[in-house]
Amino acid sequence: MGHTGTQGGVQTLQALLGLTHSPSSDSDVENTMLVAVDFENPQQIIEHDSLENVNSQIGFAILDTRDLFTSSIENISTYNFATGNSKYCERAFRQFLFGESINEGKKSMLKKIQRIIPESRNITLVGHDITWDLRALSSLNSGFQKCRFLDTQRIAGQILPLTDQSKRYSLHHLLTRFDCPFDKLHCAGNDANFTLRLLLLLAIHSVKNERLSTCQEEIVTKLQNIASAPLPPPKLCPHDIASAQKQKRDELKRQARVQEQERIKRVRAEKAKEKGRRR
C-alpha cells in the first residue's frame, strides 16, 4: 500500500506553526507533531523483508508544535536506525550527531518507531524530495500511510527563486543559503534533523514581509532559535577511543624517555664537572 496522505504547501506550514491569521483549526495546530523522515538506501528497504544484510538507515526528527505556544524549552528529538554489516553500522554510529545510532532488524525497528511517534497525535511528515522516503515508510507498514506531508524541496520552490537549475534546491544548497548549521549529511538521522530545521527557516522566510502579532513574532524567534541551535560536538567510536588512548600512552612513554635522557645528560655533566675540580 502506498502513501495516501495529502501534501501541504506554504499555507499549511504557516498554519501548523501558528503564523497565519486564519489557521485551519486551533486544535489541529496545537496537537500536531512535525516528524521529519529520511532513508538511506530506501529502495533496498522496500525490496527486502529482512534487513539483516541490507546496509540502510532510517532517521526521524520530531518537533512538538505545542512547545511553540508554551514556555517549554523546545528542541528537536532525533533518532537514527541502522541495519546491515558491522562496518556500515559503525560508520552510522560515528556519523550520527544527535545521540546513539540504533542497530535494529525490520520488525523490532517498527516497534521502536511506533513508540517514539504516538498514534494519538496529528502527525505531519516532513522530508526533502520525500517521494522515496514515503514509499519506504509505507513498506514498513508503519501506520503513517494516511498522514499529511510537507516536502521542503517543493516549499522552497514556492517561496524562493531558482537561480541555478543544476542545484534543484538540494538540501546542502538550501542549508547553506539560510546559514543553518549542518554537518555529516547522508546520515539519515542528521538529514532528518537538518530537513526539519530547514522547514522552520522556510516558514520564517515565508512571513518575513507579513505583519505579525506579538505572539507570532515570539513564535518566529523560537523557530529561529531551534533552527540555528549549535550542533553537538563530534563523537568518537570505540575504535577511535582506543586509538586515542593508545596515542596518549605512546606520548607519555615518549615524554618519559625524553625526561630520562635529560636526566642522564645532567648526571654525566655533573660527573664531568666533579672530575674537572679534582684535577
- SSE order, as H and E? EHHEHEEHEHEHEHHHHH
> How many β-strand runs?
7
CATH architecture of the largest domain: 2-Layer Sandwich
SSE class: alpha/beta
Could you please describe the fold and organization of this structure?
By secondary structure, this protein is an alpha/beta fold. The chain has two domains: 7-234, 2-Layer Sandwich (Nucleotidyltransferase, domain 5); 236-279. The chain has eleven helices and seven strands. It has helices at residues 10-16, 26-30, 42-47, 86-95, 106-116, 131-139, 152-159, 171-177, 188-206, 214-227, 238-278, and strands spanning 7-8, 32-40, 56-64, 77-83, 102-103, 122-127, 148-151. It has a seven-stranded mixed beta sheet with strand order 1-7-6-2-3-4-5.
Give a topology summary.
Blueprint: E1 7-8, H1 10-16, H2 26-30, E2 32-40, H3 42-47, E3 56-64, E4 77-83, H4 86-95, E5 102-103, H5 106-116, E6 122-127, H6 131-139, E7 148-151, H7 152-159, H8 171-177, H9 188-206, H10 214-227, H11 238-278
Parallel strand pairs: 1-7, 2-6, 4-5, 6-7
Antiparallel strand pairs: 2-3, 3-4
